[in-house]
């Protein structure tokens, strides 16, 4: 601004660009005489454009773009209290109101914010997760689907009185809930008379909930082999350890929401003792005996899982999208295609339903390639596509295997496979089927959905809703929703969750793993049982605990390793908001953190945006006087006016959660002072909301329409992988209204989202 010193960029904050120059302009003596008649627009045109530009986009090295969410009351108060920074008293009363009104209407109103956000559907290839799930399901179409129909848990166990698993020597057949036995020098069954020689095997499937690397461990001094989703054992230690129990480990990638065949064989021959324990270390969890709830006695076909490493997906928009194309991504798709091609050739006769010596083998392999291409492209092939992708390779001079290799490789490198939605015309039934399957499963359509598309039964909202409701019952939908909730609650943004061992010696890796399981079980219970009510995510007064957690969090419950639903004092606990795992995640290693908790609530639960802090300020506990509470420390460090632009929102939200310490345990005092969890927040409507603890905050969020809209936004983005505004100016409001009318039913919201996305016709 003419006549004023430019404030360095690092000192600016979310609305300093608004207020510094706006209020500074009133210093002009010429303007002072007429300031009552000058409108906010005139003032902006005269003195603000130089730094802020005509449309508020900001000028490099002078001002940042206008962005974020501020209520009119917040803007007015901020201008009166902090601007200009050199002398805030120069811009008061009507002047501040006039300036705030113009800036709010022009740049910060909800309508303007909606219009300013990106609203273009981008051409997108599969995300890494979608590629893994799609290729697994593509191969499973021919190899057999891994679906469990048996509701019983545990593994089928067989015990033999010989080391060779001879059928006539079997003495017992039963279901064992887990595999964890210490037999010592005794036989495992009373019918086995010779304790020096026997064998045992356990068979069934293991169900996994998250995608990632799983480490399987067997502990035994005897000979053992373990198979997991493989025709070859992943652990092969078919020799004894001469009486010394050892750990044998192997790591394998598995996809969440699926069962995998599992077999464990063990024998003893003249060893001094016998024991066996089947354990694992899932992603983000501690090593443990594989729990009964993850084991089923039914065996399933193997699942083909690509091992190629892909570059991370673009997540600039706040959710993973396949919009970035790079050499490393192209190389990864080639490597993965070669890996799949190798798997196809290895199982070619099984895939094509033929035998090596069959006279019609070549014809059947060619037909398999036709079907493979049709499923990969998620629609029937034209005559030209059949020729290009398959038939041209099956020339007499080429061997059948080479023809199949070329065909499969060409199919898997085609954009028709790699890009999930390339249609910019009116979507047909096959496009709708793909949008549904990728929105709900992150994978290709199943037989039932594909058949519905073939029959032309996917072009009406009620038909789409019927299919979506069916698809929600599939474990893949449950896995995708769990993935969404982990993202929404920011569960995976920390490498590890560790606390000060001197202060919290009981908070070990097993407690952390149990807490994560507890949170997952709570979310599953709310979403998949009963009314699927979003509000219960925030208001429910129960948690899932086992005896280990009960001891740490001082909750009375029966002894046992299994998790049970435990009701707590509803005045102290409020759903995910106060779940110990979440409270511990948003805390320091030795202290609670109102700032981290407040930022989480602001951004994720209320959907309000925050600018980065104007300057990096490290919270150093040692810099404060002894005897200060965490609240007092945070209030002191965020007191500067430059901080309060955002901390006027962050602090009240974080302070309302101060009853929970660094491990999420409820407390009444800190440093011998009563906890003060009261707070006041100015809402986007300008109302002042008062909280007195976590329960009040949870009630407010559960009733706040902006929070409802924020949840709609985040679920839409995770499902569709496109910006919600690109589907129409009123779609967010319409979906939020439908959400509220459904009783805040999360499953029904997902169905409504898919109806919108499936039938949408993008503009080219």
UniProtKB/TrEMBL annotation:
SMART domains recorded: PA14
Alphabetically ordered keywords of this record: Heme, Iron, Metal-binding, Signal
Domain PA14, first and last residues per copy: 150-294
GO molecular function annotation: electron transfer activity; heme binding; metal ion binding
Protein name: PA14 domain protein
Domain Cytochrome c, residue spans: 35-107
Presence of the UniProt keyword Heme in the record: yes
Record organism: Gimesia chilikensis
Organism phylogeny: Bacteria, Pseudomonadati, Planctomycetota, Planctomycetia, Planctomycetales
């Amino acid at each position: 601004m003419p006549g004023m010193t430019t404030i360095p960029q690092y000192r600016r904050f979310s609305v300093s660009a608004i207020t510094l120059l706006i209020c500074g302009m009133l210093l002009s003596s010429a303007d002072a005489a007429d300031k009552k008649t000058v409108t906010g627009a005139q003032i902006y045109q005269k003195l603000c454009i130089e730094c802020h530009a005509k449309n508020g986009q900001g000028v490099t090295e002078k001002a940042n773009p206008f962005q974020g969410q501020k209520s009119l009351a917040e803007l007015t108060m901020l201008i009166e209290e902090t601007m200009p920074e050199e002398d805030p008293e120069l811009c008061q009363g009507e002047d501040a109101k006039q300036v705030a009104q113009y800036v709010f209407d022009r740049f910060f109103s909800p309508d303007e914010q909606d219009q300013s956000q990106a609203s273009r559907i981008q051409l997108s290839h599969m995300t890494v997760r979608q590629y893994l799930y799609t290729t697994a399901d593509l191969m499973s179409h021919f190899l057999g689907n891994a679906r469990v129909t048996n509701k019983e848990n545990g593994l089928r166990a067989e015990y033999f009185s010989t080391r060779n698993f001879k059928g006539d020597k079997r003495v017992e057949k039963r279901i064992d809930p887990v595999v964890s036995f210490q037999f010592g020098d005794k036989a495992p069954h009373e019918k086995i008379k010779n304790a020096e020689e026997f064998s045992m095997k356990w068979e069934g499937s293991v169900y996994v909930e998250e995608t990632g690397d799983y480490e399987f461990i067997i502990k035994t001094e005897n000979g053992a082999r373990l198979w997991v989703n493989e025709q070859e054992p992943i652990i092969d230690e078919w020799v004894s350890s001469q009486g010394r129990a050892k750990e044998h480990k192997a790591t394998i990638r598995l996809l969440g929401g699926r069962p995998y065949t599992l077999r464990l064989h063990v024998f003893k021959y003249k060893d001094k003792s016998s024991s066996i324990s089947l354990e694992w270390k899932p992603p983000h969890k501690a090593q443990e005996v594989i729990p009964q709830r993850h084991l089923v006695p039914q065996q399933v076909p193997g699942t083909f899982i690509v091992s190629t490493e892909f570059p991370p997906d673009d997540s600039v928009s706040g959710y993973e999208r396949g919009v970035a194309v790079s050499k490393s991504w192209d190389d990864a798709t080639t490597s993965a295609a070669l890996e799949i091609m190798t798997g196809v050739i290895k199982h070619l006769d099984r895939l094509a339903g033929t035998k090596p010596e069959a006279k019609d083998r070549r014809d059947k392999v060619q037909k398999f390639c036709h079907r493979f291409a049709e499923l990969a492209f998620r629609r029937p092939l034209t005559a030209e596509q059949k020729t290009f992708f398959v038939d041209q390779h099956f020339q007499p001079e080429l061997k059948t295997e080479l023809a199949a290799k070329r065909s499969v490789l060409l199919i898997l490198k085609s954009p028709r496979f790699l890009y999930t939605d390339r249609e910019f015309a009116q979507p047909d039934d096959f496009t709708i089927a793909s949008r549904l399957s990728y929105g709900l499963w992150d994978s290709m359509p199943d037989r039932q959905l594909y058949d519905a598309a073939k029959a032309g039964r996917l072009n009406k909202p009620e038909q789409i809703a019927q299919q979506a409701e069916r698809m929600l019952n599939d474990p893949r939908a449950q896995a995708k929703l769990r993935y969404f909730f982990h993202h929404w609650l920011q569960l995976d943004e920390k490498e590890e969750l560790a606390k000060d061992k001197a202060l919290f010696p009981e908070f070990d890796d097993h407690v952390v793993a149990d807490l994560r399981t507890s949170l997952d079980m709570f979310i599953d219970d709310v979403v998949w049982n009963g009314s699927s009510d979003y509000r219960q995510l925030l208001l429910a007064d129960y948690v899932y605990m086992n005896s280990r957690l009960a001891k740490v969090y001082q909750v009375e419950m029966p002894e046992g390793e299994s998790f049970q639903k435990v009701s707590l004092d509803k005045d102290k606990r409020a759903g995910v908001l106060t779940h110990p795992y979440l409270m511990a995640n948003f805390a320091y290693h030795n202290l609670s953190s109102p700032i981290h908790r407040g930022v989480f609530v602001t951004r994720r639960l209320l959907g309000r945006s925050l600018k980065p802090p104007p300057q990096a300020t490290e919270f150093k506990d040692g810099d404060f006087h002894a005897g200060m509470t965490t609240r007092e420390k945070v209030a002191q460090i965020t007191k500067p006016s430059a901080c309060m632009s955002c901390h006027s929102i962050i602090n009240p939200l974080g302070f309302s959660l101060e009853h929970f310490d660094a491990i999420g345990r409820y407390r009444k005092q800190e440093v011998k002072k009563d906890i003060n969890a009261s707070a006041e927040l100015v809402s986007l409507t300008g109302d002042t909301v008062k909280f007195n603890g976590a329960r009040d905050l949870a009630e407010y969020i559960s009733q706040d329409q902006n929070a409802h809209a924020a949840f709609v936004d985040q679920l839409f983005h995770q499902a569709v992988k496109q910006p919600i505004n690109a589907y129409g100016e009123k779609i967010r409001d319409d979906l939020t209204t439908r959400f509220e009318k459904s009783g805040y039913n999360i499953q029904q919201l997902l169905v409504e989202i898919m109806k919108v996305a499936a039938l949408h016709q993008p503009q080219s």
